[in-house]
Amino acid sequence: MISSTGWILITGILAASSCALVGTFLVLRKMSLMGDAISHAVLPGIVIAFLLTAGRNTFPMLIGAGIFGLLTVYLTELLSQKGRIFHDASMGIVFTTLFAIGVIIISLFAGNVDVDQECVLYGEIAYVPWDLWIWQGTNMGPRPVWILGFVLLLNITFITLAYKELKTYSFSPQLAATLGMPVGLIHYGLMGSVSLTTIASFESVGAILVVAMLIVPPATAYLLTDRLHRLLLLAVLFGITSAVGGYYLALWINSSIAGAIAVVTGLQFALVFLFAPRYGLLAKRYIINRSKEAPRPVTTG
Amino acid sequence: MDIFFEFFSLQDPNIRYVLAGTILLGFSAGALGCFAILRRRALVGDAVAHAILPGVCLAFIVAGGKDPLMLIAGAFVFGLLSMVTMDFITRNSRIAPDASIGMVLSVFFGFGVVLLTFIQSTGYVDQSGLDDFLFGQAAAMIGYDVNVFGGLSLLILAITIITFKELKLISFDPSFARSIGYPVKRIEFLLAMLMVLTITAGIQAVGVVLMASMLIIPAAAARYWTDSLRVMVVVAAGVGALSGITGSFISYTAPAMPTGPWMVVSAALVFILSFLLAPGRGEIARFVQKRRLRHRIASENILKTIYSMEEEDDRTDRVRPRRELARRRHMSKRELNRAISTLLRKKYIAWFSGNPGGYVLKSEGRKEAKRLVRVHRLWEQYLNQHLQIAEDHVHDDAESMEHLITTDIEHELLESLGSPERDPHHSKIPYEDADEGEKDGDNNAHNNQEGIDQTGEPGKQNPGGRKSQTTKPKGSRP
Amino acid sequence: MTTQNATTELQTGPGRDPSSAGRQNPPVEVHDLTVAYDQKPVLWDIDFELPEGKMTAIVGPNGAGKSTLIKAAMGLIPSSSGYTLIYGKPLDKQRRNVAYVPQRESVDWNFPISVMDVVLMGRYPHLRLFQRPSREDRRIAMGALEEVGMAEYQNRQISQLSGGQQQRVFLARALAQDAGIYLMDEPFAGVDAATEKVIFNKLQELRSRGKTLVVIHHDLQSVPNNFDWVMLINLRLVAFGPVAETFTDENLQKAYGGRLNILSQMVERSRQQRFVREQESE
Fold first, then answer.
1. Residues C74, B37, A187, CA angle at the centre, nearest 5°?
2. Contact by Cβ (8 Å): B31, B19
3. Is C56 exposed, middle or buried (0-12, 13-18, 19+ CB in 10 A)?
4. Is the CB of B111 less than 8 angstroms away from the CB of A263?
5. Ramachandran assignment for C186, one of left (phi > 0), alpha (psi -120 to 50 degrees), beta (any other)
6. Do B114 and A281 touch (CB under 8 A)?
7. Domain assignment of residue A276, yes or no
C-alpha cells in the first residue's frame, strides 16, 4: 500500500498539475492575479458553506467557494466596466472586500467554528494521509486525493476538448470573437476551472500558496518555449518537480511543506530566468554583445 | 448609544491609540494609493504586503527575539527588495507585470511561511505576536505604534506636498518626464519607499491581505468625486481616515471583531456610495444625464419632423396632428408626450385644437428646427465630401451626430465646406433668413384663425409662408 | 494682445546654444543607433544628421521602428548601441531644447488633470525640481493654448476632449516648452480635418521661425506637399534626404517592400478604426 509520504506526494503532484494547466492560460491572458483574487475571495464562500452544513463536509464547501470564485470574476468585470476603473484596481477592491467579509463572518461565529485560519491560508498537506474517505466501511484512501484527482481529470478534459478555443482565446480574445467562438463561455469556463482548482488545492497548500503553483511554473515554462502544448507540458513538469522538491526541502529543514513548495517554484524560476537559452538574462546579454560584430540582418521588409 | 459616547469621549487611552493609529494609517494609505491606482500599480501593494513576512521572520531570527526596530527594518528591506524584484523581472524578460507581481507575492510569502514554521519548530517562546501578522492586531496598539504612525503620516504628507508636481508628472506621462530629463527612476523609488513604509507600519494594524485594500479602495472612491488630482488625494486620505474611525468603533463595540476587516468594509461602503451618489461622475448622476440627453434628442427629433413635414408640402400653416408625428417617429407614447410638452414649454411649438388638432412651429421653433436640419445636412455633406463616404451611408451617422454639433463646430463645418447649398441627397440646406420672424404662421394665427388650415386639406397659401432659402447666413465668421 | 506678446517672447526664447554658433552643428545627430528586443532587432545601425530649420517626415511600414527611433534617440528606451547629440552636445545637457510629443495613446486620458495642467508641464524644463510654475509660466502656457485654439478649454478635464483636441493640447505643451527642436510621434493619427489644418499651420509657422521639426507621419500622400525632408525607415535607414530626391518610387518600394497596395493599406486603417479613404494607386 502507499505510504503516507506517498499520499502526500501524490496530493502535491495532483494539485501542482491542475494548477499548472489552468495557470498557463491565466499567465498567457495576463490574468495571473485573478488566481490570487479568487483564492482570497472564496473565503466567505467556504465559511458560509461550512456554517450551513455544520461540518467538514467538503462538497458544499467546494460549491460555496466555487460560487464566490465566479462571483469575484463577475463583480470585477462589472466594476471595471460600469465603474470605469482599471481592471487590477477593481479586482483588488472586490477580493479584499470579500476576504474581509469572510474574516468578519469567521469572527462572528468564532466560538462555533473550527475553521483554522492558518489552515485555510497555508493548508496542511501533511495531514492528508489521515483525512480518509470512508465509503460504506471501506477505506478509499485520502479524500483530498480523490478530489484533486477528479479536478485534474476535469481540467484535462476541459483543455483537451476546448484546446482550439483556449488557444485562440489566449492569443487574442477579439480574434476568437470574430471567429465566432463563445468567448464569454470560454472565459467563465476557465475561471470556473481556476476556482475549482484553487479550492481543491486549499487543503493541501492553502490559499496564498496556490497562487505560487498557478503562476510560477507556467511563467517558468514561458521562458523556455513558444508553443502552447510544450508550454503546458513544461508547466506541469515544473509543477511536479516543485511539489516533490518542496516536500523534501521541508523535510530537511523541518518547515511547512506548502511554503517550501512555493520557494522551490521560485528557485526554479530564478534558474530558468538566468539561464534559459533564448529568453534568459544571460543569453540576452551575451547575444547582444556578440551581435554587434555579426553581419547585418536581412530586412524582412 | 452609550457605547458611542464612551468611545468618542476618548477617555480610554487604548481607544485613543487605536483611533489615532487607524486614522493615520487610513490617511497615509489613502493618499499614496491614489498614485498607485493611477499608475496601474494597484496590486503591487498587495505583493509588497505579502513579501514583508520573510523580512520580519529573518529579523526575528537574527535579532533573537521580538525587537520592534529590527522587525520594521527587516520588513522594510524585504518590501523594497520585492519591488525591485518585480521591476527587474518585468524589465529583463518577457514576463508580463501581472505575472511578476503574482510570483513575487506568492514566492516571497512562501519563503516567509517556511521561516515562520521554522521559527515555530525551534520553539521560541516569544513568537505569538507573529501570528497576528496575518490579520493585524489593531486593538493591541500602544503609544509607541501611534508615534510611529504619526511620524510616518507627517513624513508622507510633507513629501507628497513638496513633490506633488513631480508625482503628478510621472504618474501622468512618464515618457514626457524622461524626455525633459526628470529623474523618473528616483522619483518612482521615492514613491516606492513611501509605499513600503506605509505598508510595513499598516500591516500591524490591518494585516497582510487587507493592507492592499486600504491603498486601493479609498483612492478609487475618491476618483468619483473630482477631476482634480489634488482634491482626489485629499478625499482619499479623508476616506481612509474615516474608515479608520468606523473600523475602530465597530471593533470596540464587539470585542471579538478585528479592526482591520471592518476598516475595509467601511471603505468599501464609502466606495459603493461614491460610485452611486457622486455628482457628475456617479452612477445616478450619469443616468440622469443620459436620460436628459435622450429627452433632448427626442424633442429635437420631433421638431425636425414637423419641419420636414413643412418642407414636404411647402406649408407652414398646416397643423400637424399627433398621430402623424407618432407615425413618422418611432418612439414610445411616453417619450412622444414628454417631447411635445417640452417643446410646448419652450414655446417652440403651439397647439391648435380642431378637427384634427395639431401642432405648429412657432418662430423660435422653426429657427431651431432649421438649425438642426442644417447641421444634419452639413454633416452629411462633410462626410460625403471630405471623407468620401457614400451618400447612402451618411444619414445614420448624421442622425446621431446632429444633436451633438455645437455652434462652434457648425461654423467650422461651414468654413471647411464653403457654405454649400445642398447636401449629398440634393436637399437644400436651410440657412437663417435676415427677415425671418415677422412673417410667421403663428403671428397670423393669433390674428386670423383662417390662416391656419386645420383640416389638413390644401388651402390658401399663407402670404408669409416660407420659401426655400438659399441666402448665405448673415454674419458668418470668416 | 496677449497672444502676440507671448509669440514674440517665444521667438526670442532659448534656441541655439550660443557657444556653438560658430561651429554649425546640426540640431540633432544620431550615431550607430541599434535597438533590439529579445534578440529581434528593431532598429539597426541608424545614422543621420537632421537639417536645421526644416520639417522632416519619418515614414515607414508599421512596426518598422519609427516610434522606437525617436524614443531610443531621446534615451527613453534602452538601446544596444548609439548616442545622440543636440547641437553637438550630449543629449542630457540639452533636453530643455527638445520638445517631445508622444503618441496620444501613451497616456491615460482619464487622468484627473486639466488641460492647463498638461500644458504647464511644458514649462517644467525651465523650473528646478520641486519649484512651482510661476504666473509667468501660466501666461506662457495660456499663450500656447491660444495658439492652438484651445484657450477656452483650459480648465477642462482632459477626458472631455476629442482626439483632435487632445492632440492640440499636446502640441500646446510642446510650444510652451519653447524648444528649438520638435520631435512628434504621429501627431496626425486619428484627428479631424480641422485639427490637422491647425497643426500643420502651426508646424509651418514654427519652421518659418527657424525651428527644426521631425514628425513621424503615416499618410504618404501628404508628405511631398508639407515636408522638406523625408526619412524612410524599415529596421534600417532606407533613405534620407530632401523630399524631391528621396521620396521616389524606388525608395518607397525598398521601404515598404510591396506593401503599398490599396488593400493592405485599407486593412491597416480599418484595423485602427479610421474612416475608409480611397487611395490613388501608385
1. 100
2. no
3. buried
4. yes
5. left
6. no
7. no
Shortest CB distance from B106 goes to which of A88, A117, A208? A208
Partner residues linked to C216 by β-bridges:
C58, C185
Single out the residue of B407, B410, B467, B460 nearest to residue B436, CA to CA: B467
Mutation for C interface: B88, B173, B234, most C CBs within 10 A: B173
- State the Cα–Cα distance between residues C86 and C93, nearest whole angstrom: 9
Q: Using an 8 Å Cβ cutoff, are A12 and A20 in contact?
A: no
Residue A95 to residue A36: CA distance in whole angstroms:
9
Strand C40-49 to A138-142 pairing: unpaired
ipTM: 0.88
In this structure, which amino acid lies at residue B144?
Y
Comparing CA positions, the residue from B108, B3, B137 lying closest to residue B46 is B108
In Å, how far is B39's CA from the nearest CA of chain C?
A: 9
CB-closest option in B99, B114, B258 to A32: B99
Contact C76 B178 (CB under 8 A): yes
Q: Considering only CB atoms, which chain C residues are within 8 Å of A291?
A: 36, 39, 41, 80
Q: How far is C60 from chain B (nearest CA, A)?
A: 23
Total domains present in chain A: 1
The x, y and z cell numbers of residue C79, run together, are 538601446
Of C38, C44, C81, the CB nearest to A297: C44
Chain B residues close to C114, C-beta within 8 Å? 227-228
Chain C residues near residue A279 by CB distance under 8 angstroms: 38
pTM for the structure as a whole: 0.79
Q: Is residue A294 part of a domain?
A: no
Instruction: Give the domain extent around A82.
Output: 4-211
C45 touches chain A (CB under 8 A): yes
Give yes or no for a contact between A99 and A43, defined as CB atoms under 8 angstroms apart: yes
Question: Per this entry, what is the length of chain C?
Answer: 282
- The domain that holds A50 is classified in CATH as 1.10.3470.10
Q: Is residue A182 part of a domain?
A: yes
CB of C125 less than 8 A from some CB of B = yes
C-alpha to C-alpha distance for C7 and C139, rounded to whole angstroms: 11
- Distance from the Cα of B214 to chain A's closest Cα (Å) equals 9
For residue A272, the chain B residues in CB contact (below 8 A) are: none
Report if residue A122 sits inside a domain: yes
- Which of A285, A286, A296 has the highest number of chain C CBs within 10 A, making it the mutation to test binding with C? A296
How do the pLDDT tens digits run along chain B, 478 residues long?
677 777 777 777 777 888 888 888 899 999 999 999 999 888 999 899 889 889 988 888 888 776 777 878 888 899 999 999 999 999 888 899 999 999 999 999 999 888 888 887 776 655 555 556 655 666 566 666 777 778 888 888 899 999 999 999 999 999 999 999 899 989 999 999 898 988 888 887 777 778 889 999 999 999 999 989 999 999 999 999 999 999 888 888 877 777 888 899 999 999 999 999 988 888 888 889 888 888 888 888 888 888 888 888 887 778 888 888 888 888 888 888 888 888 888 888 888 888 778 888 888 888 888 888 888 888 777 777 766 666 676 676 677 677 777 776 777 777 777 777 777 777 777 877 644 443 444 444 443 344 444 444 444 444 443 433 333 333 333 3
Closest partner residue to C278 among B179, B386, B388, by Cβ?
Answer: B388
